[in-house]
Write a structure and sequence with these properties.
The protein is an alpha+beta fold. It contains two helices and 22 strands. The strands form eight sheets. Strands 9, 10, 13, 14, 18, 19 and 20 form a seven-stranded antiparallel β-sheet that branches. Strands 15-16-17 form a three-stranded antiparallel β-sheet, with no helix packed on it. Strand 15 and strand 16 form a beta hairpin.
Amino acid sequence: MISSLHSGVSTLKSLSQGLEVLGNNIANVNSLGFKSSRANYSDNFYLHINDAESGADGVSNNNLQQHGTGVHVGSVSSNFSQGTLETTGLDLDLAIQGEALPNGGGFFQVVDPATDEVFYTRAGAFEENALGVVVTRDQYRYQLQGVDGSIDLSLNDNETLLSRRIEENGSVNLVVNTPSANGDSEDVIRNAGQVRIVNFQSPQYLRRVGNGFFTNGSPGQDLAGLVDNFIPANGSNGKIKQYSLELSNVDLTNEFASMITHQRSFQAGSRVVTTSDAILQEAINLKR
């Protein structure tokens, strides 16, 4: 088999993987907190038929023959920049406003109450369950974590909830109406915890598990390098913005442009394969 045929096949294989990445980005253009990915291509190893050598007189031999063997997907990197923030009317819709901060300002930490498995997400659509615990608004019902455990918004006896306020630093305050000592009632602000923000030294090592969730490896592993700072609006952590949700950071304009480039490259690669096949066919016919 001539090497150009192998190069053409590697082109088709690698670009197919790249189109899978582009297709997944486009499919999740409306997914909350979704982070786009990019396929990074690299050339394959080279065949060194004749390398540069130094002659007896010190003059280098420039009769170089180095043939490439095609292309492969070197890596698939994630873009953790902040997506557009959309204002909603729900007080447990939270977004992390990190803008140019590393990783867009960090992630919410949620826990599966059945298995204690930890996940990280930018999709801040939460709600309160019947027990007063803040959970994700999906079929998984993972519990939102604060610095001291799960966020619990349950009321004390004789309290009436008026509003919930979540500050930029993650402080969760309940405005409640409670009976006073003289028999009347009064409005008081009671702290109900602190939202936990998690950041990483190397977020590219986080594993995607679907539904907008990431993991930091198997239990006991720390693949991405957990940063020991869990307070929002502190250090590299972003601010909490209440009544907001972060949308996908997929740029459709760039994705469509990349898709067209991939299509043209795929066509060129297929032409290399067909041309190489025709040359091989001609070589076989020489014997007839």
